[in-house]
Structures are given as structure tokens and as C-alpha cells.
Amino acid sequence: MLYPINLELDDMRITIIGGGNVSYRKCKNFLDFGKSVRVVSPEFIDEFENIKNDIELIYDTYKQDYIKDSFIVIAATNNKELNKNIGIYCKSVGKLVNVVDNITLSNYTVPSYLKRGDLLLSVSTNGKSPSLSSKIKKELEEKYDDSYEEYLNILGEIRKKVIKKYKDISQRKSILNNLVNLSLDEIRIINNEI
To answer: Rounded to whole angstroms, how far apart are CA atoms 28 and 36?
Structure first.
């Protein structure tokens, strides 16, 4: 079973091997979190043209040198044997690797996720049903709309004020726990009053 974790990507080199749809989707996911990646493939689907200024595209066949300095590697080619070899190598040298067509060779997966500013909700079925993950994600998108970005930002501002103003830890906890039951309009008012 996989262990859920959030990673700070700032100091990590990420390389994706492959230039197709899966590679593009994985690349876009990293860009959602402000992280540029290196993508290696002899050819790329047209969509990569839209993000070429935000990533490093290398038009070449896979070579081990391209991933030696990477901490995270995604093997997303249409060649199962190549993906397998990338997975085996990465695991043997302690890299995080996601082999898109072989979960047993992967030591991490990326769940479906919904991002609203600093609010990050993720759903995983450990590869058993990506369709169910997608369904649940859509349900979460309806419940947690774009207003949750502002909602969370205001809660963060209020939290700082409450910590500064109230020294009693149980009083702080009570105030902060009650805030999450209020609407966006209500916490806007409280933020102005506190």
C-alpha cells in the first residue's frame, strides 16, 4: 500500500521520458505546482508547443544520463520494455519513479487532485479504478469551488491574528475550530473585526 505524502519540489529535478498524452498530462500537473520539468523524447505531441517556454524539451531518445541528476522520474513512453528498464534503474539508485504502465515497478503514484489555492484534495484508488478517482474528483470540484481559495486565505489570516491575540491555547483552538463552520461572507466579517 502506498503512503500519502506532499513533497516540496523546489530543489528536486524532475524528468519525464516520453512525449505523448500521458507525458503531457503529467507535465501539466507539475506546472500546476509551479515546477518546471525536463521532458525527453524523439518527438512530442502538438500540445507541448503550448508549454514549451515553461519546460525543458529534449528531442532525443532516452539515455540514462538524462535522469542521473533527477530525483523524480516518470517513465511514460509507449515502449513497455524501456519503461521497465527505467523503473528498475531508478529503484536501484533510490530515485522516485512512476512507471505509467506498470504500477509494480513504481515506488510512487500521483493521485487525482483538486487544487484551490493552498487547498489540496487528493483521491487515490491505488490504481484499482482511475475511473472512480475521476468520479470522486468531479464530486469534490462541485462541493469545493473556486471560492475556497479565498476562504482558506482568510482563515489563514484570522489564524495568525487569533494566535497573536489569545494566549490561552484551548481558547485559540475553540475559536479556530468554530470558524470552519462559517460561510465565506461570515469569515470576511470576522476577519475585518478581529
So the answer is: 9
Q: Cell match 528531442: residue? A: 59
* Total-model pTM: 0.83
Amino acid occupying residue 21: N
- The residue among 109 and 50 whose pLDDT is bigger is 50
Rounded-to-integer distance, Cα 190 and Cα 182, Å: 10
Cell readout for 186 is 461570515
φ/ψ bin of 127: left (φ > 0), alpha (ψ from -120 to 50), beta (otherwise): left
What is the number of helices (H) and of strands (E) in the chain? 6, 7
In the chain, what are the domains?
14-110 (3.40.50.720), 112-144 (3.30.160), 147-193 (no CATH)
> Which pLDDT tens digit goes with each residue over 58-100?
999 999 999 999 999 999 999 999 999 999 999 999 999 999 9
